[in-house]
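Summary for the lay section of the report: proteins are chains of building blocks that fold into shapes. Here we show the chain for ABM domain-containing protein and then a coded description of the shape we predicted for it.
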Amino acid sequence: MIRTMVRLRARPGCEPAVASAWHTARAAIGELPGNLLRDLLVDAIEPRSFVVVTEWTDEAVLHDYEQGPIAARFAEAVRPLCEPPAAGDRRVMRDVPGGGSTVFVDVELTVPAARRAEFDHGYPQVLDRMAGVPGYLREELLREPDSDTFHIFAEWTGAAEFHRWIANPAHAREEAGPIAAFLLRIRRRLFHGVAASASVAIPDRGRTPSKESDVHTTTDVLIVGAGPTGLTAAIELARRGIDCRLVEKRATPPAHADKAIGVHCRTMELWEEQGVVREAMDAGIWLTGNMVFVNGHETHRMSWELPELPYAHLGLPQYETERILTERLATLGVRPRRGVALAAFIQDDDGVTAALDTPAGEETVRAKYLLGCDGAHSTVRELLGLTFTGGLGMFPQLFMLGDVDLDWDMPDGHLLRFMHETDGRMDGMLVCVPLRGESRYRIATLAPPRFFAQTGGQDAPPGFSEELAEPTLADVQAAIDRLAPPGTRASNLRWSSVFRISHGIVDRYRDGRVFVAGDAAHLHPPAGGQGMNTGIQDAWNLAWKVALAVRGKAAPGLLDSYETERHPEGEEIVGRAVRMAFTDELDREDLKRQFLQEMSMLLSYADSPLVGETVTDPDALRAGPRPGDRAPDVGGLHRRGVGHPLRLRDLTRGTRHTLLLYADGSADEAAVAAVEKICADLPALAAGELDAYLLLDPDAPQPRLLAPPVLRDAAGEFRARYGVTGTALYLIRPDGHVGFRSQPIDADGLRKNLHLVFGGAK
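The coded shape description reads as follows.
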């Protein structure tokens, strides 16, 4: 993409005529092929100056416009209305490096009319402070006409200087402080200046903005962010033989438990599939239950050790999660590149070209797809211009975290919530989560008032938690004295920090060949430990689909299903977490169901267009998992030649679809015999990405089949859990969810469902 910005200085009194001429030209420009944006901005400091902004897919279409009749007519119309142009009035820039020496940053923000005076007072102070920042050159303050939307358009000597400044949390206080309250919900875009000689070059039609010789690295998938979401995506792609690159702007891994602690039961199932569940159990502790106290009185207690769960709820600091996943990824031949930040990218019909800032300088990577797993302050989200549906919410309170030892008489392994309410409103909270180590806990509570006072009573700017002093052991003890059982003592404060909770979900999860997942897509309170686990689920859903797309085996709509399936789940989780955060709102009538929901064990994609069923009897399969539901594990399966019972997970484990065909003693012999022909067609229908098995009830006769492999449901566990009789089938997707089911076996329905995934592959 290429952008132009042309400044027009209207003669006194000619401003309305210039705006009118632009509106006429704008409508015509919008009809031109390759035009992406056309705007007229007003200089907020110099109201007689306008800036015409256009964006185009490439230099060729820009050239056609500038040499064509529409631009000529507009120039002719405004020439008598404007002063002669000056040097530097026309700027050309790309969203990837383009040969120029400087970079430009466009920060879009909102200044409500009622607060305009406050902004006008603070902005000159910011200009004075910015003058001393290394690498900063100049900026303009532009406004969209008749709007509260402003643009701070700044020029820097290079991307490295800009990112170095923005990465330093002190910038929000030292330079941007006077207008920090307006910088909480911004859209930021970075552009690279185009050298004067390069601006007239016209590439061949259809070429990407960067020449192939300029691309330093090529890969199938570029993943930005090496937290749990990005690591999960990389593992799943690497397990499928997909070449991927994983970059992380943090130079070193985290060293303390400042993020997620709880690992959900469903995540443990995924880790079993990835081969890291033992390492996780060895490094963590089991969270065995929870207790809630309101104004000193216990309101409920629940055990989380439910016999039907495949795994319990594990307590594991996120830095340990990242270590375990990083080590697993290394066994697959992939290691994160640390200290490498995404600066910009551009996409076309065939792939994505990304500019990276590395310790050795700027590097360009060409990939088929880009996955934005870069967290709450996602660069990918920002560059895509994604917005939070309904805006980004923010809790008014400041909170503090701490890692301490607690001397008290509370049950081991329990998550404890202590709340104080006055007139039915929460005015104090303390959450204590067990950590590995004797009497060691992570505590979360409201920050002392002095921290809020340091923000001036306003919303704190980004990075504020690193600017404020760390809470002390005395701060922790004060919260404990107010809320915890009398006599509780805290000691050995290992670390502490202050934070504010934001919540929201982006309007879309995909833009062409670029996707967002995890905190890049949704932010929510830590209640229930949803953030990390939801991000892992995002990556688990997305990676197998991207892998098929890379191999050319995906149906046209398969990648669209990522947003279709995960966005509603993100909305539900954000809403539930906001409702439950720092309140005692619980479904006391069914605590077990609520816990299973929190642990993602009830997660279903029932509304996905990828799933379906054929059931002739309304009561058939009623006891089994529905299309889109998680496929539960069962035991007691016997395979000839194997001296021990097998689990269903032994059949579905891997990176492919699994077809489970079932027959009992009442099944029609011809229907069972037809299973062999159905399975013979599967390799062509599913591009070789499907395994099939025939499960027989103990009383069913053994058919003479060469394929598929046959197992006995010796204990009847599959029959009971999946609700099957006669003949039936379940198609299990690589992510462990039911894609299709039927009773009796419906070969045509199965073929249609596979077509939704593989598009009739041969």
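Put simply, here is one thing we learned. Residues 196-213, 460-464 have pLDDT under 50 and may be disordered.
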